[in-house]
Amino acid sequence: MGKWSRNLYEKTDYPDTYTPDDCFLAAIHRNKNLNKYTLHESVACASQVTLQFSSVILFYSGYIYLKQGWISSFNLLKLDLILALMAYLIAGTSSSLFGDFRHLIIFVTFGYGLTPVLFKLTDTISTDTIHTMSWIMLFLHLLLHNYSVKAYDTKPMSLNASLFSAVCLASRLDSSWDAFVLLSVAVVLFVLFPMARVRLDQALGLAFVAESVVVGVCFSISCGFGLGVACAMVFVNIIAPMLFVKWQSYKETIHGPWDEAVPLM
Amino acid sequence: MASPGDHGCAPPSNSMIGVHRLSIMRGVSCHWWWVCRRTWQLSFTGSYLLQRGHLLRQAYQKHRLGRCLFWLLVDVLMGYAWATLILAHWAPSTQGVQLVLGAMDSVVLYLRRLITWLMDAPAGLKLNSVLSSALGKFFLYHIHLWVTFLHLATPLLSQALSRTMGVLSYLGLMLQISVAQDTFNLVTFHVHCFFTYARRLFLSQTHGLQSLWRLFRGKKYNPLRDRVDTSHHDVDQLFVGTLAFTILLFLYPTTLVYFAVFKVLDLAIVALHWLASGLVQLGLSFQ
After folding, report:
1. Are B176 and B276 in contact (CB under 8 A)?
2. Is the dihedral of CA B206, B211, B212, B213 positive or negative?
3. Quick one: pLDDT band at residue A185, thresholds 50, 70, 90?
4. How far apart are alpha carbons B147 and A88 in whole angstroms?
5. Residue B249 pLDDT
6. Where is A254: in which H helix or E strand?
7. Which residue from A110, A124, A171 is facing B129, i.e. has the nearest CB?
8. Scanning every residue of chain A, which has its alpha carbon at the shortest distance from the alpha carbon of B125?
9. Where would you find the membrane-spanning parts of this chain (chain A) (predicted)?
């Protein structure tokens, strides 16, 4: 018998299906594309999720505060404007100043113009239905959000779901001015804040401070709510990344000549 | 609404052009002529007479005029018997007019009650109170206009009806049915109007919701390829779109309920017309 070689276009004595034992399994690659994450990296990425989660919680707390009358709508608007200015300065002007001004004008005009319609919109629908619907929409917002730390690009469905829930909640408030304030809080937290959030992926300390402020606000609403939010944040931001880093060692993938050919781009 | 004009036979087009030219030559606007002609074609009586005349002409050309006239005689006899029966046992002719006018009043009263019922969120439906009352007021005002018109028209109409009542009994059953249909159409004309308004509102809102739902998912319709494409929208576009989507979505049940109620009313009227037109066609099929 002649020497075996890996081609089928020559006549040899070996059958077509023949492979020598030391040739096939020798080509195996284990954990070929493995990228080991450090704890710091995974915590930084997880903090993006918790920051967005805390912005959702902050929005809901703003609604509760307005609804219960714990804060006047004017004070909330002032807080909102401060937050907006900070977020705008951190995010930096991506486009021209004129473009940002145009966005602002559109938000204020349409928001203020449509709130008289909004706050009478869901009069006949029960409050529980509205709350459930807005929670589902906020969950959808978190689920579909773009958490990438490289560059922020709005996912339309995520943003729309959050605005939908904002409109639902605004329609339960007592006056159209309150509804407008809540809508502007939603715009700052769901439109402007994610642009600033991407810049904060290295500033872990700042993120933790912001999250603890949010947890404090939650505790002021009710103990159970605050405890729940705190547990969720600790789990997502600390325990889950630790588990992820620890369980990375169990990762095992094998590649070999049996794989489908992948074109190299 | 059933359109009885579509089975009416159109005269040959050269005669139309002839009339057209003639009226221009006389310096008379021919629009009025066309309006009258179209009304005649659209009314049940007019289309019945046109059809009957066409059939008679056809029978004359095929030398079957005798048979046709026989069935016409049967029709007239049946109409006379029916009219005598009604006048003798049910209502004398003056009361017949009162009956029609009373029916008008009860239709109006019933519609008013229905709209008022819709205005205060019936049966636990999640109607938007503001839109519902605005729509209700709009329809009530329309009814008010119609009632004013009826009050103006009633003296004329009752005179005309009481005069024609006697003549009609000699003109055959089919013509009586057609005249009854036309009267009924006049009485229930505002129901058609309501249905048209409600339908227009409902359709516009449905189309708006469809395209805004596409925007909600970050897509838009591409007419060039007849498909839905993913597209990039600005943040302010999304904001305005979502506001509009939410508002339209919560107003949708109200429009839907108004549309459904007026659709049912319209369907009932169309069914009655369908029945009566079926009877007339059955009578015309005897040749």
Report:
1. no
2. positive
3. very high
4. 61
5. 92
6. strand A254-255
7. A124
8. A124
9. 42-64, 103-119, 125-144, 179-196
Q: Token pair 């009361």 is at which residue?
A: B95
Please provide the DSSP assignment of B211-251 as one string.
HHHHHHTTEEEETTTTEEEE----HHHHHHHHHHHHHHHHH
Residue found under tokens 């405890």: A227
Asked if the C-beta of B130 comes within 8 angstroms of chain A's C-beta atoms, the answer is yes
Q: State ipTM.
A: 0.81
Residue A146 in any domain: the answer is yes
What's the pLDDT tens digit per position in B210-243?
A: 999 999 988 888 889 888 888 888 888 899 999 9
**Domain presence at residue A160:** yes
Does a structural domain hold residue A6? no
Cα angle B253, B259, B263 (rounded to 5 degrees) comes to 145
B202: CB partners within 8 A, 6+ apart = B255, B256, B258, B259
List CB contacts of A151: < 8 A, sequence separation 6 or more.
A198
CA Rg value for chain A: 27
Question: pTM of the predicted model, to two decimals?
Answer: 0.77
CA distance B236 to chain A (A): 6
CA-based nearest residue to A156, from B234, B207, B54, B252: B234
Count of other CB atoms within 10 angstroms of residue B248: 17
Distance CA B75, CA B80 (A): 9
Query: Phi and psi (nearest 5°) for B205?
Result: -65, -40
Question: How far apart are alpha carbons B203 and A28 in whole angstroms?
Answer: 63
Answer whether residue A106 is part of any domain.
Answer: yes
d(CA A14, CA A84): 75
User: Do residues A182 and A25 make contact, with C-beta atoms less than 8 angstroms apart?
Assistant: no
Range of the domain at A60: 39-93+100-247
Number of H helices, E strands in chain B: 9, 2
Q: Which of A235, A218, A236 is nearest to A227 (CA)?
A: A218
Please name which of B97, B79, B211 lies closest in space to residue B154, comparing C-alpha atoms: B97
Number of compact structural domains in chain A: 1
Tokens of A37: 């994450």
Of B128, B218, B247, which is closest to A124 when you measure between CB atoms? B128
Tokens of B17: 């052009």
Of B216, B233, B250, the CB nearest to A122: B250
The amino acid present at B247, given as its one-letter code, is I
**Beta bridge partners of residue B173, listed in sequence order:** none
Distance CA B229, CA B15 (A): 54
Rounded CA separation B88/B91 (Å): 7
